[in-house]
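Suppose a colleague, Dr. K., hands you the sequence of a protein chain of 491 amino acids and asks what its three-dimensional shape might be. Before reaching for any lab equipment, you can write down a predicted structure in token form. Begin with the sequence itself:
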Amino acid sequence: MASDLIKEKEENLQPQLLQQLQIFTKNKRQKIFLEENKKAFYKEIIGNSISNQINKKRFGANSPLNVDPPTSIEFSQSKKLVKFMVSQNVFETKEQMQERQKVLNRLIEIIHFWAINITNQRQIAIENEIVVKVYTFGSFKLAVQEPGADIDLLLVAPKYMELRKDFFENFCLFLKAQPEVEQLLPIPNANVPLIKMKFYSIQFDLLFSQLSYPSIPINIDLFDDLHLRNISKESAFGLNGVRVSENILQLVPNIDNFRTALRAIKYWAKKRGIYSNTLGYLGGVSWAILVAFVCQLYPNALPSKLIVKFFTVYKIWDWNCPIILDKITDGQIGSPYEVWNPKNPRNYFKMAVITPAYPAMNSTHNVSPSTLAILKDEFQRGFKICKKIEQDIEQWITLFQSSEFFQLYKFYIRIDINAENEADFNFWFGFVESRLRHFCRALENAIPTTCLEKIHLFPIKFENQIHYNNNNNNNNNNNENNNENTNNNNE
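The predicted structure, expressed as tokens, is then:
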């Protein structure tokens, strides 16, 4: 009787399984993988107990593959994972968190002071409303920041405050006058204009969004698409950072497990030299979406299992298929902004990890053939190590070992960056860094694949050896921290 029930349930669920896993059958290799592992996938769908009818709640656009409760082994492995991460200072201490929050509150105070002064100078009356609102987003909003990480802030301002005149001129002058502000660097011409600075030695990235309202309501709901009406593209991008961070938290079944798994994956990506949106790898938002997707597939999984499933899923993923957390919509206001659409030829990229907020965008548009190949290699390595960890053959420390970049190849290109002072160096370094992926793509297009297998960009900086000089002939002793290292592999 039990076997009949299992057979009947398997037959009923087989179409669902194949539909959910059709993304794995885009090529012959993946069809073979599915055929060889279909029993394991059936078990994922059916679960271990036919008698337990578990409600498979859908989170976002994806139905769960497995809803089994955690095992004692998974509890044990998760404890070991957290213990290792603590030993590596991946978590902030309570004192560090309190100090960071104190500095953040102080910065918000002076932002409001500046905004009130601007408003008074223009003799604009504000009643029962506020001048600007300040939001956190990114790793700080997701509560996965590591010690020393920067804080992303968005200033939401009314229509009488302008990006160029007020944010990049008036506000920058105001910040320069604050003794606590260091390394002030406005970047007005970036795709997402921002101000970078240190405040009480904590790095901040400040963005600005100008709404079309005469004032900002105290209880404004930033997640209402109507606020995107009649605003600039730059302002929409700024709002999207806040909206995406909040939506990710809303779309995962267990926020604590998501945060622990994301901390681990971010730490792994940095150790392996693949954490950099600028250089064509993945940035914080993309890694968060990838982890959230796995959380949706395995809603009851503990962090250790989520890490294993992360590598299990992405080592065989067909990257012609996008990673989507929630249904893509045109918003409540039609579609004044371009929304990611796979049917649009302009939206074809080597990898598509889509942000879960209107307007949906591809967060991995910088990925190139070379960086995708490196990411695939790292997913494969992670899968093999995690399988050994499950079998108690390896420990978590093996997964997080640093990249062997400087032992991998025969040929390396070193780019020296020189400046007369720290401010000039930071600006020049950022400019060169932003152009490196274009340089690599030019090499990929110019050199035949028979001569050039891949180009490996290495995003790790060696800040402990920085020095500045104004002698153009004194370059022989420049240290590697002034470089972004690239490698071309023609073996």
